[in-house]
Model the fold of this input.
Amino acid sequence: MTARRDVGDFEAVIGIETHVELQTASKMFCGCPVSFGAEPNTTCCPTCLGLPGALPVPNEQAIEGILRIGAALGCELVPYSEFHRKNYFYPDLPKNYQISQYDLPLCVAGRIEVDVDGETAVVGITRVHMEEDTGKSLHVGEGGRIADADHTLLDFNRSGVPLVEIVSEPDLRTPEQARAYGAELQRIVRALGVSDAKLEEGSMRFDANVSVRRSGTATLGTRSEVKNVNSLRSLQRAVAYEIERQVRLIESGGAVVLETRHWNEDTGVTTAMRSKEESQDYRYFQEPDLVPIEVDDAWRARVAASLPELPATTRARYRALGVDARTASTLGDDPALVALMDDAVAAGADPRLCAIWLTGEVVAYLRREDVALDATPLQGAHLVELASMVGAGDLSATAAKEVLAGVMSGEGGPRGVAEQRDLIQISDAAVIEAAVDAVLADNEDAVAKLRAGDPKPLGFLVGQVMRATGGKADPKLVSTLITARTAG
Amino acid sequence: MSDPADLTVAAAGAALRAGELSAVDLLGAVERRAGVTEAHLHAYLSLDREGSRRSAETADTELASGRDRGPLHGIPMALKDNMCTRGVETTCASRILAGYVPPYDATVVRRLRAAGAVIVGKTNLDEFAMGSSTENSAYGATRNPWSTDRVPGGSSGGSAAVVSAGSAFAALGSDTGGSIRQPASLSGVVGVKPTYGLVSRYGLVAFASSLDQIGPLARTVGDAATVLAAVAGHDPLDATSYRSEVPPFTAALDGGVTGVRIGVVAELLGDAIAEPVRAALRSTVAALEEAGAHVVEVSLPSFDYALSAYYLIAPAEASANLARFDGVRYGLRIAGATTEEMMARTRAEGFGPEVTRRILLGTYALSAGYYDAFYGQAQRVRTLVRCDFAAAYEKVDVLVSPTSPTTAFAVGEKSADPVAMYYSDVCTIPSNLSGDPALSLPVGLDGAGLPIGFQVMAPALGEAVMFRVAAAVEQLVAFTDRPALATSEVVLP
Done:
């Protein structure tokens, strides 16, 4: 997919609302544990069940978490912030109001950069606010929607889980940018360690606001809000579908309606859920059970000091070390890889070689064996040793990968594994020269062709020498020797 | 000795420790009293006979073995039925919570139990504490022990009536706009609304969260202070609870009023206040001046708008607080074809007319396009009220006024006119808007033999000076009358 998409002379305008569940020890306003996959209705109490008389008490760890997200997105952490009640009736919302924030959110006016095919777009962050999650409804019966269900089962384990909402400015223009924005937010949240940000488990969720307008016009078109986007891929697909739907609608003389639309992953289309015309008046007002949150300079400084290196900085640092953009980005996605990379580079390993190993063989091994990096014995020092062995010509690039797998499976250090597996390259020139001479003597036709200026037999001859040395000769050295001996 | 049911908490405690009476005796006395008075008053919604018996026996065992939990140990008390009691039905006098049994105790209930109090039962109220007469109860009205054709005030009318009649030594009520002080006034007992945040609201079924506060009703100022001391203090389960130490207020009750600066609220002296009530205020203030207090008249102009502001803020908060009663998880459920219809029918049938009125009023006040004109404006008035109080407390230590514009009115008299009913709270509402403490104590009877209340208001956390002035008034006026119904003899109808 390219960043430019043919939608006639239309331009798309996209803004994204992102919900992130914080992985705090306890819920936002009570002491119940935050856990994914527990038996239904086993992690709840009077407060998160909305029982009469129960009261909310804010979770300080969650406030800390949202402030770190805000700071990482370049937001201003506002000095005075309030909680509001957002009123609407729904069976899985136990109080029939959600404690959220309205006109005084904790973080405002941030920005991040997203890259698509080397082009950078700046995306404004309107606000980042704190709220509580709802319970879950399981509609039993036809269709899985409330309207045609026989009955509905309610699970309040998720009720009251800290939820951060990140609202972007409508600064995105393509489905690819939308995806890149979502991916960057996911990286940032994971780098902060505040959430696992798993789209498939719902700990990160996107709603995309999409509108189109004739290129060159400044006024915004009527937007639709697309919900139920459960992966980065479907974010891109859903936005692309919605853009095309709206353009086709306008070109055929129709008009876009302000509405909420449901993305269907299987059919790849969006369908109307409800019109915003009949959308509810949430009757926001200050939550009287809670007191305002005041963030002073000292707190702001503490939050800033607590931030880890952000993915964008990591990527830039690796690129400066000569790592290509794609590899730098892949590395930057995984805090464990970043830690190992930095460890190895600090100990003197070649950054480009390390980056290739980490994003190649190491990731492949982890996926193949289904283990986490910190469950393997691989250390930065191993990479240093491995790189120096390759540099000294003791190990071929192919053999190095095999050694890496051996180290990760616990067979020992790189040299030990290489020796045990008999992978050490022959670095004695005399041995290689003897093998070259023997092969050249046995293949007079090929040598003749080479001398006549036909380069084709070179590969064949190198292969013969490699076979003769049991694959342990340095192929580059072999090639050089053959060329030298057959020259002129 | 007279009937133990008529003893003060202090005297009953002394008798317990002297071995003259047991906690089981005290419980027996209030149960005998309730056995006679309840037929006339309907002040209790439920009596926990087993639980209270066990608590009384435990108290006797503990006291006999030298384990003394303090002044409430073994004392029979009542709770307004909007405070959650684990395993004991809590209805808020609403049909929507009929049969609802909470799985947890309110913080005040835990503290009373820890103090060794014996909880006799749950008292009647206006549904969800919305009302000034205890007539808005889904389970029938409560009557005034001084005259059973009169209301006891509300919404803590049940708690006021049991303390007045002697079917409990003291009780807890809740005060959102006067719901402790106004029934205390109409029923001739002492009632205290503490500083907002002094007593935890955890487990109090919310009416208007920024105004609600739990407080004691008792027969003497000293008893009220004792009960308040037992339930006050920081609670980590209530984010609006005061974090600092509670200033002590039970020690200096007999400090007198020499040199104390007392302000009489000019806005609460007008024609809207019944003449006997004004007369009682004048004579009480004169007695205070005689006793050495400096008395001045103080104007708090925003008081004229406080009632209107209150009737926007309280319903607005209530509209959200009562949204959770939807038939989904607990309480009444009336079936419907869809979820929305089930919720709507449950709420339509579960809530009484006054609660419905306030939910509608509050929903409207918060609606898009109306918010600023109604809720926003009311919040600005609330700020003005706070400013007026602050300015007044630059000049005086306490403010005094009538508690209620009238003495107890007749059952049914104001039922058809909500605004006339709302006006009952005109003197008490400002202290809820400001969050400051206020107290009512009886200072006399009107021509019909009905008690008249006197209100003492103090700045935030000023409970000590408030109780000191109230105790002085108590001594000066020496109000010792008891209602005719305060008897354990069978009364002929």
